[in-house]
């Protein structure tokens, strides 16, 4: 199965038709049929431990505020799978992965799967992010799941490489900040060349990182997706633009 990283951006994309959502739809139509879909979302942080969803049906989590009521009425009906959850947790066992029946699908997951996989006939699960782990260790952790791709598991990281919400420009068609474009371009080049040392140490590599990634919870799903690639695999970018001036929508899929 391929691996995707999706820049999910503003939750409002879930109820809009625009070039981002159109591209998600097209990319979803290109995907082979998986046996299961597993998402690492920037919006499920579990400090000190990694969790895996384990419920027969996934509840939809509306983890935001101040948005139109319409957004909180979006439905995304999916099932979980205990055996898949158990296998994922077993692969992560050294890090004390926990099965979690309380979480569901947060907006980092359903807002993009709504387009990528509108009516999945296979189980959908999430894996949380232990945001206390250094990035190299996080990369090693998720890399333990790579072989499950050969068994039909589609892995998706959902976050944003550039995510400086406090500097967002809310006016329509707002231009990107120079530092946002520079960091996006630098990380894209590093992804193309697979310069892991740089990508796993963004603050020590690029001076724009501190402003483009003030906190790294949205960057970490990219690291998760990166860890699942085979050494010889290349990636193809899509939605490679900056939204709202400071939210990088750049996404990639293996080719």
Automatic annotation (TrEMBL):
Pfam (any one): LigB
Q: Which InterPro entries match?
A: Extradiol_dOase_DODA, Xdiol_dOase_suB
Q: Which UniProt keywords apply?
A: Metal-binding, Oxidoreductase, Zinc
Any idea where the Extradiol ring-cleavage dioxygenase class III enzyme subunit B domain is?
21-231
Cofactor list: Zn(2+)
Reading the lineage from the top rank, the first entry is: Bacteria
Q: Record keywords: Oxidoreductase included?
A: yes
Xref: SUPFAM superfamilies: LigB-like (SSF53213)
Query: What are the recorded GO MF terms, alphabetically?
Result: ferrous iron binding; oxidoreductase activity, acting on single donors with incorporation of molecular oxygen, incorporation of two atoms of oxygen; zinc ion binding
Of which family is this protein a member? Belongs to the DODA-type extradiol aromatic ring-opening dioxygenase family.
Question: What protein am I looking at?
Answer: Extradiol ring-cleavage dioxygenase class III enzyme subunit B domain-containing protein
